[in-house]
Design goal:
By secondary structure, the chain is an alpha/beta fold. It has two domains: 75 residues, Arc Repressor Mutant, subunit A; 209 residues, D-Maltodextrin-Binding Protein, domain 2 (3-Layer(aba) Sandwich). 39% of the residues lie in helices and 21% in strands. The chain has ten helices and 13 strands. The strands form three sheets. It has a six-stranded mixed beta sheet. Strands 4-3-5-13-6 form a five-stranded mixed beta sheet, with helices on both faces. Strands 1-2 form a two-stranded antiparallel sheet. Strand 3, helix 5 and strand 4 form a beta-alpha-beta unit. Helix 1 packs across helix 2, helix 1 crosses helix 4 and helix 5 crosses helix 9. The longest helix is centred in the last third of the chain and has 20 residues. It is globular, with a radius of gyration of 20 Å.
């Protein structure tokens, strides 16, 4: 078997939909056919590209690398014979972008500016992913970086396009003197008596997915602090023993705080690129997407707790 463009499109669609069934629907084929093709591609690659689970599929670390390269090739193939944005008359070169609470934003903007120096980006911070979608649909925004969760995908109209950037496990931040701080994986059940800091409703399923995980672990937190503010301030409160918090896998702990994986990986979060299909060119979309992935790869390279988790959960290709 040799890789063809259609195989790369299958990989990209699986990464976008996080589901073999939805991939089959998008591509107009059967789910067994998609599953068979994926297995053949993985045999050719010599490693798993996706992890199958009850809530869908998520890319392995190697799978992320392969999908990034696949998107580049698919984008280049789609650009053959098409004029660039700069050559089209009347093109608006001001991009209105909003992002929720995500560490990939600085790297995304820096890389986009390098690739498209003529593009002016106006950035705003919008916590709610549902609000970002609403601003796209009413014409206030052109593009956004939002989040959703496996089994709770972000809803939107046909005017908006959604593409998953990366799906990551959620970790927990603990005081350095917490009894569970020395473990590689911390069970949610062992944190039942702790106070929790949780961010408010984001319109995409949070904090509902977190409470679902608590209930599955057999408890409901006695104390919950709703907090939406500076990450350093949150970590200072955790270091002072005021509570613990679910955090992003790339979170860099301050002195007095440790970040640990959750046993069984009960919580996942997906960063999503969303845009209005009539106001953003394919060139800009592919640039933003590639910049977001590159920014994320740089972040996880600086997150030893994530690397330890990945080494125990992700297969790597044979060399």
């Amino acid at each position: 078997m040799e890789l063809e463009l259609r195989h790369l499109r299958i990989l990209c669609t699986i990464a976008d939909t996080m589901s073999l069934g939805r991939t089959a629907t998008v591509l107009g084929c059967s789910q067994p056919a998609v599953s068979s093709q994926l297995k053949r591609i993985e045999r050719l690659m010599g490693a798993d590209l996706f992890v199958r689970g009850s809530s869908g599929v998520t890319p392995t670390r190697f799978g992320v690398e392969v999908v990034v390269q696949a998107r580049e090739i698919v984008a280049l193939a789609g650009a053959i014979g098409r004029r660039s944005t700069a050559e089209r008359p009347g093109t608006d070169r001001v991009l209105r972008l909003a992002a929720t609470n995500t560490p990939i934003l600085p790297g995304l903007l820096q890389r986009t500016r390098t690739v498209l120096p003529a593009l002016t980006t106006q950035v705003s911070s919008v916590y709610s992913s549902a609000e970002i979608v609403g601003l796209l649909e009413d014409g206030t925004l052109d593009v956004g970086v939002a989040v959703d969760y496996p089994g709770s995908e972000l809803g939107h109209s046909e005017a908006v396009v959604r593409r998953g950037i990366v799906t990551e496990p959620s970790f927990v931040a603990l005081p350095a003197d917490h009894p569970a701080s020395t473990r590689l994986d911390v069970s949610l059940h062992d944190l039942a008596d702790d106070a929790w800091f949780l961010t408010p409703d984001d319109g995409a399923g949070w904090p509902g997915v977190c409470y679902d995980a608590f209930r599955a672990a057999g408890f409901t937190p006695a104390t919950v602090h709703e907090f939406l503010g500076d990450r350093d301030q949150l970590q200072r409160m955790i270091a002072d023993g005021l509570g613990i918090s679910v955090v992003q896998a790339t979170c860099k702990p301050i002195p007095g705080v440790v970040v640990r994986a959750l046993a069984g990986t009960p919580l996942w979060c997906r960063y999503v690129l969303v845009w209005h299909r009539e106001r953003v060119s394919d060139e800009v979309v592919e640039t933003l997407f590639g910049a977001a992935l590159a920014a994320y790869e740089e972040l996880i390279a600086r997150a030893p707790h994530f690397q330890r988790w990945a080494a125990r959960h992700y297969r790597t290709p044979c060399t």
